[in-house]
Amino acid sequence: MQLTLWTYEGPTHVGAMRVATAMRDVHYVLHAPQGDTYADLLFTMIERLPRRPPVTYTTFQARDLGKDTAQLFKHAAAEANERFQPAAMLVGASCTGELIQDDPAGLAAALGLSIPVVPLELPSYQKKENWAAAETFYQLVRHLARAGSTGDLPETPTCNILGPTALGFRHRDDVREIESLLRSIGIRVNVIAPLGASVADLRRLGEAHFNVVLYPETGAMAAQWLQRNHKQPFTRTVPIGVRATEAFVREVAQLAGLDADIALRQAQAAHPARSRWYSRSVDSTYLTGKRVFVFGDASHAVAAARVASEEMGFKVVGLGTYSREFAREVRDAAAQHGVEPLITDDYLEVEQQIAALQPELVLGTQMERHIAKRLGIPCTVISAPVHVQDFPARYAPQMGYEGANVLFDTWVHPLMMGLEEHLLLMFRSDFEFNDTAPASHLGHANAQREPEGATSPLVPATRESTPASDLAADPILVTQWSTDAERELGKIPFFVRGKARRNTERYAQERGVPLITIETLYDAKAHFSR
Fold first, then answer.
1. Minimal CA–CA distance to 121: which of 143, 100, 136?
2. What distance lies between CA 225 and its chain's CA centroid?
3. Which residues are annotated as a binding site?
4. Between the CA of residue 147 and those of 102, 158, 277, what are the distances in Å?
5. Which of 283, 332, 470, 484 does the annotation list as catalytic?
6. HSE-up (13 A, CA, CB side) for residue 323
7. Looking at residues 191-206, what average pLDDT do you find?
């Protein structure tokens, strides 16, 4: 294990908790030390759930290690069953509890409980959160899905939605949007799992014609098992963006035995995609070609890169993921965009890549939000891990046609705000826009004369036109730029151009260089990159 300040994924027991917390009548008994109860805060403080997760911790302490910790687990499991009366119980150990080797599965079996007990073997030192969430859901489906139910299917095309969990990025709203989309084309949703599902719902999974996998990271393993054992095909398209949503509608129509063209017209009539028109409007076309760096879990990162390139007109300059289990898919997508894939769970490598590529927009996780803020680059979160602001009170899906509208707003608006800041900076010396100018709507105040010492934005300040007091206060103004150097500086993205100018002038002044040339500019860049 690597000691780090931030991690993209939590330990395996957090992944299991995401599934248990998403369901209604499942309880998780976790063999863990007292300190591991911090995981509750992920759900109550970040996701803002009105209840604590359905988890009982054995909370053994250092002094308990010399005693019978196995008996401590058996007591906790029996007490949880009596107190919460769940319909099924998950049992397992955290990364610390795993070291004790008390065998929670065998201990729970020895209790002879009257409810199904699903043991979780989660190798904490080899796997992480997303894999554990997928494994937990798979084990629940494998133990609880009723066999032999596929022979009695309803006449109406019916599907299950698999993959949404607690603490998932916009899962709540995605499910609502996709369920509405399926309903608009005549497909009924049988079960949504694990989010909001009960044990009885899992037993009914076989009563559907096919499965919709919204989040492969957490739902693909269960879908594959259902395909093998219940002959249920499942979808491969993640409906993020207008084009992917259209492909998704055609795919589910085919699986349901419907006419794909008719289904697509029905879906488009019920769910207007304003983003298609907005992305072609005058307000957006001047953003065409903006350089974008994408990082997140595999599904969201691949989808975001596709939407950015095909629907927004951006240029993808970097693509990566921390989901090593889906590295092949990300490598294939990176090849399509002509970029080198970044497969890592080290945020410092991601920061180095962003700094080197100097994109104009970052689409990433909560980690990249912090990185971009330090680098002065606009950023939008597209994937977990996320923070409390990414669980909004409003309806804000990422999937479906409404999700495409949300993507347009959240991706394009930061660039527009950045452009406004750039224009204000460029015209900062203008008599109407300088810091001492009154508000523009106060007409009588605007009749004042131009502030003394202000210069036209089209005429750079020179040593002769700058007051001597300013020169004394800021000796960097003495340094001059050559025409070629100014032109080269203009190629640097506007949100880091000011820093590049300041660093170069500082470098030149410290070395007594009176005229900055292209060579000086690159020497300064090399100096500050060390």
1. 136
2. 27
3. 36, 418-419
4. 32, 18, 48
5. 283
6. 27
7. 97
